Amino acid sequence: MQWPPPWRRSPLLSASPPPGPVKGFLRPVRMSEAARLYHYVTPAESAMEGRWQTRPSLRPASPTNAPAHRQPPLANVCQQNYGAPQDPVEPAGLRSASHVTGSSLGKAEVACGSRRRWAELVPESSWSPAVGASKMKVKMLSRNPDNYVRETKLDLQRVPRNYDPTLHPFEVPREYVRALNATKLERVFAKPFLASLDGHRDGVNCLAKHPKNLATVLSGACDGEVRIWNLTQRNCIRTIQAHEGFVRGVCTRFCGTSFFTVGDDKTVKQWKMDGPGYGEEEEPLHTILGKTVYTGIDHHWKEAVFATCGQQVDIWDEQRTNPICSMTWGFDSISSVKFNPVETFLLGSCASDRNIVLYDMRQATPLKKVILDMRTNTICWNPMEAFIFTAANEDYNLYTFDMRALDTPVMVHMDHVSAVLDVDYSPTGKEFVSASFDKSIRIFPVDKSRSRYVPTSKPKTTHYSLRYQNVYFQLTSREKAAKDYNQKLKEKFQHYPHIKRIARHRHLPKSIYSQIQEQRIMKEARRRKEVNRIKHSKPGSVPIVSEKKKHIVAVVK
Amino acid sequence: MNVNQVAESLLALSQQEELVDLPKNCPLSENEDDGDSDGERKHQKLLEAISSLDGKNRRKLAERSEASLKVSEFNVSSEGSGEKLVLADLLELVKTSSSLATVKKQLNRVKSRKVVELPLNKEKIEQIHREVAFGKTSGVLSKWDPIVLKNQQAEQLAFPLGKEQPAIAPIEHALSGWKARTPLEQEIFNLLHKNKRPVTDPLLTPMEKASLRAMSLEEAKMHRAELQRARALQSYYEAKARREKKIKSKKYHKVVKKGKARKASKELEQLQKVNPTVALEELEKFENARMMERMSLKHQNSGKWAKSKAIMAKYDLEARQAMQEQLAKNKELTQKFQVASEIEEEKGCTEEVEELLVPHVVNEVQMNVDGLNPWMLRNCTSDTREAATQEDPEQLPEPATHEVSESEGEERPVAEEEILLRDFEERRSLRKRSELNQDAEPAGIQETKDSSCQDVLSELRALSQKLKENHQSRKQKASSEGTVPRVQREEPAPEEAAPLLLQRPERVQTLEELEELGKEDCFQNKEIPRPVLEGQQSERTPNNRPDAPKEKKEKEQLIDLQNLLTTQSPSVRSLAVPTTIEELEDEEERDQRQMIKEAFAGDDVIRNFLKEKREAVEASKPKDVDLTLPGWGEWGGVGLKPSTKKRRRFLKAPEGPPRKDKNLPNVFISEKRNIHVAAHQVQVLPYPFTHHRQFERTIQTPVGSTWNTQRAFQKLTTPKVVTKPGHIIKPIKAEDVELK
């Protein structure tokens, strides 16, 4: 006897799973954990501390979408003023009232109203009859209202203050404690994970940002599906079965009206960004059939030109089916190609024979090639500094190069404990985010070799691709002042051991933690060996190679 | 290079000893280098000229002047004309012959002319190309250097860099490329077009525009005023309705409802006069309503409210009345409406009806109730009876008799019941008064409540008492007889109202017990002091009561057990551990000590050390500080000093923790060092600073607004990077930074 009996078996259980992509009422099954997108928030310069738990307001910036001023500001969820001094403009007795109103203007109104009321309640004349009756001279505290009442509510509050340092002692200890609190709170509220965008049925292989809309993100999966997401609503706007096999690359056109995809089926397809109209079928605007598999694609930042990579770097005109020019240097598969966002005729690519090659589109030649110890997976150009790019390497490091001097990287960024898979610059060009095979992502300042930040939270999946998108929070002026002050304090006292320790403390997954320990030991052993070799050999016979130069094999002109 | 080549060729000739003339050879070599056909021709001419100069050996030799694939075998003349040529002659000729000046010149010319090198291999060329391109690109890129440097050193960077104008496209532009595609859209647009609504310009229709143009200012004002008035009136009306809706008085609502009904009936009558067809329709409506009523369970005394009322009906006149009303209503609603013919018959009565101020329909119903349909009445009374039997069987005989006797009219049974109820109440009030006098002390809380509440309370108490009695009697009877019919048991209840008074002391006892229980059991005391407020609870209490003493006993037992436990605590005996002191002092050791003593006889190290330690300990002790504040806790002022008592209290410094070397006479541990401070002190000068004083100064200048003016505070805390919310930061452009 079988249980449950056939009449009680649910149709889902009894029916054999249909072949191919599941449609209809069945819920799509997630194949792997990596089949979703994770949306993080970072304590970037734009974001604030102490507000990680609140819902951010991601605003589309394009004028066609809702303009920023129409949206109501977020409710003040967290009005604490961490360690920061109160606004001196605000009178002490009315603090609670100002908390209610929130905005500086409203605050002023509350303060003003109460003052006036006080003046009405205790007019000097009302006292006089009683005084006269008793014939006693009473000295009263009287103030001239001109000294403290504003003429209009738009005036600044006149607050008598005495900045005599003897009245405000212990500046350093007090600020030290404030800095300590600010540092601790930063750690407490560092909850960067915002949301995961579920929907892909296979691993997500590539990502692209919308150039005109902050809320839109495109993703290509390993089953050939491309999805367009809305980050504000956290849902999928559109799903396209773009290719057979992997989607190897996605890139948007600079105007944001269409996007390009390349896949394992040797095709390049151009799609409209908006969905198909009524009665139209979901099909690409153009399809280019190639001879070889394309592994990456990037669009020019100003012109109707895009570049693909595979066995060679091809530059295409959007209107033609043959490349304008194809550039090769050596014969190896090129894994990614990127246009320089500033000097738009420049391209960079990295191939699997461990090299990074730079190209000039105008002169149709490669410019220079640098060979590293290990293979580079991706490069990304700095959007604010035309000649700087960062390469994500398999040897756990990232290298920031000045393209005019490739023999020495400007900075070696080392914190990952496994191959670095992708890198993307922040729009301000001050830092970049990198994803690694060790299932972590890290944020590096451009000029620091160590990561500033590693978001640690639940999703422990390998991030194959990632993009840096600024997220904005609504802050009141007081919150902003407190944030800036806290930031300054943290900077000021950053060298103090206690504060340094707290600021550097991270809760890492055990695997990463143990790997870091292991690699530290390995590195120390290597260093010791080198030191010993230098010590025990003839002076000058063993050359001392700096860490920056160590990983560069050669620069080919 | 050319010369070399010539020389080489000459050497080769000499070695092979071939009879080839130099002048013949010369062009050959030249031809190799320079494939110019013009030059060849010139050479040919030159050679002829040379040969003509030399008159002696003028022999026309078939000669090959250029390397060609087709070489005729007849023209080959490497052997010459058979004369032997000696190298020495040749050399002599070169030296002496003046005719060779031209050749020399040519040679010179050849020497001076630059020769294009061999083309390089492809890789080399590509490399060169790359290098050149790289150089150019580097040049282009280096124009960014100052900007990058400036941005890196900037105090503050505000993003986005360029001033972008938010281009808000007008809706016409957005709509220009848009077409209605879906059926819905098309329908909407069709409608819009049909009504000449604006599609692109969303302002006004032509009609509206025209009307706008047509209306004068005064008119508009009047129109507006009208509208305002209407709005105001509406708001008043709404406010009134809201106010009326809020009124809680049932009477009021009843009156309103009745008024409405009356109005409706009046209208109906009028309609019948004026427009009989409409009136018929109205009547149909009534009929429908009746059908609905018959179908529904409303007013059938089967709802929750009705059931509760049925329970209370026995004691409460109002409840009974309410039930009756309910039933009457049901009857009224289910009553078949009199057809117009009847009404027409009773036309004469209408005035009377109006005087009575009772709706026509109601009257009819009344009439029906009285005379026309006795079965209906019967039905509804039986309904009530059934409900009553379900709830309290004791009432069964009474209403039945009433019913049988007073089936003719409704008023009489009600009156009788009322009389009965009044009797009950009187008795209750009497009882209550007597109770109040005697129960004043135990029921202190209950006194505070108003009389009505007391009434209910006493009633319920009586009930509970009855129940208890029943319980007891049942117990007694259970031992003797076994089962007792329920009706018998409960029948005497109304008659026993008087004897209840006599049983009061017992009840008081029980109450006291309950209170005691409450004191003991903190869990139950919340319910028990005022259990009588609700009937259920009061019923429950007697059930609980017999258990109470048991519980008390148990409690006591528990406490006893605890006492036992505490007394039986085991006594701990301290074991005196025998300590054996080994007093083994060898003589040798003693000798050594003696020796050391003798050696250091002059300086008393130990004493010095002890002295030093004592001094250090003294120094490290916290000093007394006078912390007295004049005026606190006593009078203060000029010439007044704080009392010695207070001074003594605040003068003494608090004792610190005991020293670590307190019990170590030979050790002196300095306690000046505080390890906890180390975490808050910077040990090494941090990177950008070059001198420790520099660092200290930066630390000592405060940033906060407590120490700085608002402006200074803002300046000090400006962030390095400022971003505008909701703006896309685009990559840097040459236009943004004014680069050409």
From TrEMBL, chain A:
<feature type="domain" description="Sof1-like protein">
    <location>
        <begin position="475"/>
        <end position="552"/>
    </location>
</feature>
<keyword id="KW-0687">Ribonucleoprotein</keyword>
<feature type="repeat" description="WD">
    <location>
        <begin position="413"/>
        <end position="454"/>
    </location>
</feature>
<dbReference type="GO" id="GO:0000462">
    <property type="term" value="P:maturation of SSU-rRNA from tricistronic rRNA transcript (SSU-rRNA, 5.8S rRNA, LSU-rRNA)"/>
</dbReference>
<dbReference type="Pfam" id="PF04158">
    <property type="entry name" value="Sof1"/>
</dbReference>
<dbReference type="InterPro" id="IPR051733">
    <property type="entry name" value="WD_repeat_DCAF13/WDSOF1"/>
</dbReference>
<dbReference type="GO" id="GO:0032040">
    <property type="term" value="C:small-subunit processome"/>
</dbReference>
<dbReference type="InterPro" id="IPR019775">
    <property type="entry name" value="WD40_repeat_CS"/>
</dbReference>
<feature type="region of interest" description="Disordered">
    <location>
        <begin position="1"/>
        <end position="21"/>
    </location>
</feature>
<dbReference type="InterPro" id="IPR036322">
    <property type="entry name" value="WD40_repeat_dom_sf"/>
</dbReference>
<keyword id="KW-0698">rRNA processing</keyword>
<dbReference type="Pfam" id="PF00400">
    <property type="entry name" value="WD40"/>
</dbReference>
<keyword id="KW-0853">WD repeat</keyword>
<dbReference type="GO" id="GO:0016567">
    <property type="term" value="P:protein ubiquitination"/>
</dbReference>
<protein>
    <recommendedName>
        <fullName>DDB1- and CUL4-associated factor 13</fullName>
    </recommendedName>
</protein>
<dbReference type="InterPro" id="IPR001680">
    <property type="entry name" value="WD40_rpt"/>
</dbReference>
<feature type="repeat" description="WD">
    <location>
        <begin position="197"/>
        <end position="239"/>
    </location>
</feature>
<comment type="similarity">
    <text>Belongs to the WD repeat DCAF13/WDSOF1 family.</text>
</comment>
<dbReference type="InterPro" id="IPR015943">
    <property type="entry name" value="WD40/YVTN_repeat-like_dom_sf"/>
</dbReference>
<keyword id="KW-0539">Nucleus</keyword>
<feature type="region of interest" description="Disordered">
    <location>
        <begin position="51"/>
        <end position="70"/>
    </location>
</feature>
<dbReference type="InterPro" id="IPR007287">
    <property type="entry name" value="Sof1"/>
</dbReference>
From TrEMBL, chain B:
<comment type="similarity">
    <text>Belongs to the UTP14 family.</text>
</comment>
<protein>
    <recommendedName>
        <fullName>UTP14C small subunit processome component</fullName>
    </recommendedName>
</protein>
<feature type="region of interest" description="Disordered">
    <location>
        <begin position="467"/>
        <end position="557"/>
    </location>
</feature>
<dbReference type="GO" id="GO:0032040">
    <property type="term" value="C:small-subunit processome"/>
</dbReference>
<dbReference type="InterPro" id="IPR006709">
    <property type="entry name" value="SSU_processome_Utp14"/>
</dbReference>
<keyword id="KW-0539">Nucleus</keyword>
<feature type="compositionally biased region" description="Basic and acidic residues">
    <location>
        <begin position="504"/>
        <end position="529"/>
    </location>
</feature>
<feature type="compositionally biased region" description="Basic and acidic residues">
    <location>
        <begin position="400"/>
        <end position="420"/>
    </location>
</feature>
<feature type="compositionally biased region" description="Basic and acidic residues">
    <location>
        <begin position="547"/>
        <end position="557"/>
    </location>
</feature>
<feature type="region of interest" description="Disordered">
    <location>
        <begin position="645"/>
        <end position="664"/>
    </location>
</feature>
<feature type="region of interest" description="Disordered">
    <location>
        <begin position="433"/>
        <end position="453"/>
    </location>
</feature>
<feature type="region of interest" description="Disordered">
    <location>
        <begin position="23"/>
        <end position="49"/>
    </location>
</feature>
<feature type="compositionally biased region" description="Polar residues">
    <location>
        <begin position="535"/>
        <end position="544"/>
    </location>
</feature>
<feature type="region of interest" description="Disordered">
    <location>
        <begin position="384"/>
        <end position="420"/>
    </location>
</feature>
<dbReference type="Pfam" id="PF04615">
    <property type="entry name" value="Utp14"/>
</dbReference>
<keyword id="KW-0597">Phosphoprotein</keyword>
<dbReference type="GO" id="GO:0006364">
    <property type="term" value="P:rRNA processing"/>
</dbReference>
